[in-house]
Amino acid sequence: MKNLLVFIPLLAFICVNAQQKYVVHDLSVIKPKEWVIPQNDTIQYEFGSYKNQKALMVQRKIGDYKAGTPIYPTNLNFRDGIIECDLAFAGKGNAYIGLAFRIKDAHHYETLYFRPLSSGTINAIQYMPEKKADFNWWDYEADKYQAKAILPHNDWFHVKLIVTGSKLEVYVNNAPKPAMVYSSLDPSLKNGSVGYWHGNSGLSAYKNLVVKLLK
């Protein structure tokens, strides 16, 4: 009887997950005319390579601790699903690199970013919603917004986000367990595009963005 009681919820879990269907968007090839990619006096980009891997290379030319820039396609509408990509801090100085999702515009989005130079500490991963003209990270310094992870200082690492309603799960380098689980995503940011995110950071590399939209 005990085995049966364990088996029934397990079977239900398997059935629910087996029924999930996704629409896959492979965004590994960036078409600039279909993306928002800022380039001005303070930030620049180019299509280059890092560690012999083709990548979008982005650099903050003038340091600004209030700077946060999403880089995203204009024709994507994401609510729930799976986001994966590869990131690398490729330069010197500050290192703040990551992803943005449910992007409304340049100042309204959810972001999950990484600090490779803070590897192994609770500052390695940072979640926050952005809804102001300046990137106000100082409002989200509490431990509940951050998590530990082992990140390479100047090499590629893989990131996977699972977004479901108000819940975010963060996986690094194909680990079986999430490095971070956050269950209070901003209710005012319900849907929007998905893309890379570049903070007050030196030269960084981004590649292999794949978005799976949950039907």
TrEMBL record:
UniProt keyword annotations, A-Z: Signal
Protein name: 3-keto-disaccharide hydrolase domain-containing protein
Domain of life, per lineage: Bacteria
Record carries keyword Signal: yes
N-terminal signal peptide: 1-18
